[in-house]
Fold DUF1801 domain-containing protein.
Amino acid sequence: MSVADFLAAVEPAQRRDDARAVCDMLARVSGEPARMWEPAIVGFGTYHYRYDSGREGEMCRIGFSPRKAQTVLYIPGGFPRYEDLLARLGKHSTGKGCLYIKKLANVDTAVLEILAGEAFDYMRTAYP
């Protein structure tokens, strides 16, 4: 499925609009085209990883998934490095490497864009 087709199928309409806006923002900050990863992740850039166990693979440097309940942004590098930005972001929650936003209107999109840019830059440095 293409990214455009995937985003066109997102429900409800507000989540679809948010997903398109996040997709445009991540394309802008990464300078990379959007591509589908897994069945429901839109990602930008690529990096190769290898765990101590020997397992390895490729994944997007930064990405998001417009889930039914909220939009999830995959923010690499751990959240402590982004504490200042998260304090200014607005209504959100975090999990291990995941930033959850129910509505894009509930956050400061300028701060979100800075956060995404810093996360992408971190990945370029950590995984050249």
